[in-house]
Amino acid sequence: MDKALYLAMSGGVQTMNAQTIHANNLANVNTTGFRSDFEQARSMQVYGDYYPSRAYAMTENPATRYTQGDMIQTGRNLDIAIAGDGFIAVYDESGQEAYTRAGDLQINAAGQLVTGRGLPVAGVGGPIFLPPIDNINITEDGSISIVPQGGANNEVAVLNQIKLVNPDKQNLRKQEDGLIHTRDGQPLEVDPNVKLASGFIEGSNVNAVEEMTHIMNLARRFEMNVKMMDTIRNNADSSARILQRSS
Amino acid sequence: MNSALWVSKTGLSAMDKQLNVVANNLANVSTTAFKKDRAVFEDLMYKAVRAPGGLSAQNAELPSGLQLGTGVKVGATQKDFSNGDYNMTDRQLDVAIQGKGFLQVLQPDGTIAYTRDGSLQLNSQGQIATSGGLVVEPGIQIDPDVNEIMIAEDGIVSVRKNGEADAQQVGAINLAGFINPTGLNSAGQNLFTETNASGPPQVGVPGTDSLGTIAQGMLEASNVNSIEELVNMITTQRAYEMNSKVIASADGMMSFAIQQL
Fold it and tell me: What is the pTM of this model?
């Protein structure tokens, strides 16, 4: 039995994994602030004291694409999008600082500023709590100015500032929660040069045509692997026939 | 089975929900004081197949791992409480709220619901009620011999009777505001009910505490922007089609494998 069968099989399985990465990108083609994932395959040599003919394929996602998505105008005061590079700092489920581009903000019943997913937005020195308000505006640098409830329109108070960061992309990684985290786990410093646009949200940066192309390509690659498995089986059959005792 | 199938399935069902939201917005493009919804998409958890930094062999570290996303979901629908256009109707019992407040109405089960639909009527007992027949809270009684009803900006309702020169005050409309109107539960029939997320209502006189003033003889139109919804419909449909293509492709892979092997 030729072990090449296992090589072809692992190729097929890894292709399916790659297919899943692209399927996930495409499923999120309308997700606010979504950043698409790259996929690549690496050859993994099996090491040992024998003839090195075993190199398995291994799919991985080496990075996330941080290019900007479409800016969609909504006109809602609490929708923010970052123009250019940078991230909005939020707190993940465990209270750690994480980063996102999804700026569909809302105010919850406790008066806290949270993202559409309900994650608290980071401000100066912690989460942002707002008093009852008449009106809210978020300026280009993330400052939140409000008109308190019952206040006149000229009684504008600047309350807090959304933490905006612009780290080195090498230090960033998307984690299982779909948020961007730093690789070293250290919270980042505020970058005053990040620009917000209020009244916009940023769409997903998935390039649908590219993903479709990858998916077609991978489907064919999978079929080649299957074809290999078929060929290997035929070879095994032929060898078996040759070796049969002719009666 | 091929996990791309399940991932794309989440894509299809999310787009389907989004289309539902868009269809509902468009259906209510002429509903008085309707507030449009927006579907909030979020990506689902990622499955870490191999964590980055794992060891591929002795002294060989993997620079990047493999995380497989599991798709997308519509995490919530957000109501957009921005004001719609105001239309003049000149009808005495039409009121529009110019601000953030809600009218309070009494439901049959005795609880209070909230609405911005100010196309008010009189019921058979002469009480001011919504077009759905729910009495506005606090109740205001209008006698049958009333000629003219006047509703002031601050909600004071006064009437002029036949053969009388002076108006008499018969009651006042109060408004309720919420810290997080997005958290209100949409009960249908233009009604909203309080939830934990909306916070308790803050009831007050119109014109105070940003509740807004009352404009008689006007109605608030729906805040649905039909062009925007049509564009959403197109993008949703295309995203749906692309996700179904992925399902077809993943299915083709499986069927090829089944036939060949």
Answer: 0.88
